[in-house]
């Protein structure tokens, strides 16, 4: 990556992390749709579909994660982008093994102190500027805490540091609206297209009387949440893994090729 690449200098670009099983990408259409949306918003020309579709097979046999990074390339003057950008596509594939214990036993998570800034223009995109997530993830080092929940600056639930949030309450699944900030995960998009999940604006108190809480993304699959702590490490809520968790997990894992019933 050249020193003057705008992705390196300014976070002027996008990325995707794609689960690949024996050379076949999972949720590929959703990943390509999000990449195209981001490229349109940022004004970065998309690589040809043939170029992109040739990459998953190069991940080889077994389970791997393919990371695609698309930047605006070099050029321009300061923040002023070049009139005719020459995008730069980079990719890397790495072997992957999911943490199956988290599927079966569930995870402990905590609230983060950091608040996400509101920027509707970038909401939903997986752009390269992820400093908020980096700072949020630096808030804890306890290996027993699997993830941190993030709110925006107005106190509304958004996501976890690298996963989307779901909870069952009042007879329905809910997930936070991502119209103002956050990353619209591809597994979240696929589940919204297939299931009756309510997209809502909610504060953290909504989780207090939830019957089930889950985190999910297109690489790890779905983790049931069994404990929620505040930002100081005090326990706020506990849940036993139940049929609600398992039903949504089965739907999510069917889309990824992960075991639908990992507890069996």
From TrEMBL:
<dbReference type="InterPro" id="IPR043131">
    <property type="entry name" value="BCAT-like_N"/>
</dbReference>
<keyword id="KW-0456">Lyase</keyword>
<keyword id="KW-0663">Pyridoxal phosphate</keyword>
<comment type="similarity">
    <text>Belongs to the class-IV pyridoxal-phosphate-dependent aminotransferase family.</text>
</comment>
<dbReference type="InterPro" id="IPR001544">
    <property type="entry name" value="Aminotrans_IV"/>
</dbReference>
<protein>
    <recommendedName>
        <fullName>Aminodeoxychorismate lyase</fullName>
        <ecNumber>4.1.3.38</ecNumber>
    </recommendedName>
</protein>
<keyword id="KW-0289">Folate biosynthesis</keyword>
<dbReference type="GO" id="GO:0030170">
    <property type="term" value="F:pyridoxal phosphate binding"/>
</dbReference>
<dbReference type="GO" id="GO:0046656">
    <property type="term" value="P:folic acid biosynthetic process"/>
</dbReference>
<comment type="subunit">
    <text>Homodimer.</text>
</comment>
<dbReference type="GO" id="GO:0008153">
    <property type="term" value="P:4-aminobenzoate biosynthetic process"/>
</dbReference>
<dbReference type="InterPro" id="IPR050571">
    <property type="entry name" value="Class-IV_PLP-Dep_Aminotrnsfr"/>
</dbReference>
<dbReference type="Pfam" id="PF01063">
    <property type="entry name" value="Aminotran_4"/>
</dbReference>
<dbReference type="GO" id="GO:0008696">
    <property type="term" value="F:4-amino-4-deoxychorismate lyase activity"/>
</dbReference>
<dbReference type="GO" id="GO:0005829">
    <property type="term" value="C:cytosol"/>
</dbReference>
<dbReference type="InterPro" id="IPR036038">
    <property type="entry name" value="Aminotransferase-like"/>
</dbReference>
<dbReference type="InterPro" id="IPR017824">
    <property type="entry name" value="Aminodeoxychorismate_lyase_IV"/>
</dbReference>
<comment type="pathway">
    <text>Cofactor biosynthesis; tetrahydrofolate biosynthesis; 4-aminobenzoate from chorismate: step 2/2.</text>
</comment>
<dbReference type="InterPro" id="IPR043132">
    <property type="entry name" value="BCAT-like_C"/>
</dbReference>
